[in-house]
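thought: fold this chain, then report.
action: predict
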Amino acid sequence: MNGLFRWLRDTLWPARCVGCSLVSTDLCAACRHTLPDAPAIRILPDGTRVISGGPIAHPLLAQAIWRMKYRSIRSLAAPLACWLADTILRTPEAARAIRTTILLVPVPLHHARMRERGYNQAHLLAHALAGIAAMPCAAEALIRVRHTASQVETADRNGRIENMREAFDCPDPSVVRGLAILLIDDVCTTGATLQDCARTLRAAGARSVTALTLARG
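observation:
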């Protein structure tokens, strides 16, 4: 039945490139090459370093993230992860920043939002990056213990910081203790989510935490 469903889906609704609508691919090679190629490094107030692949204002990058996150096109995670990895490798400063990474950890969703959406885009990205970089990924290293309001709906930085305060937990500190963590998410805007995740990981004994996102706001 699953095979029949996939055949019907691929026949009736074939994948189309998010950029040029080319059939049979979610992001064609030509469009991928138009994505930004100079990642930015930002230091959050708590000292967490955030590497972002490009600005969310870039139309194709924004559209790809939106479709992956809100239109259930999960297969976009793989080409976006490839683009992000290639961009970092071509940028010495960004490559040096993550060279000591030992473990990838995605920013988690609360279980209520997971039920609504059915998947976590940060986990999809982390899994794809783990395969590219041959690094382990610990999807359950962090859990979200508070069902917070959407950060998109919280306008100012102070509000976002309060919204995310103590929203995460590390249920088994031994998973991250002594390790250099690469925290994965789709977008960094104010950095409030990444900052609280990093605080939780450090409190659990992580040696260091660097964040990696597709885009910056």
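thought: worth noting. The chain has a mean pLDDT of 87.
final: tokens above.
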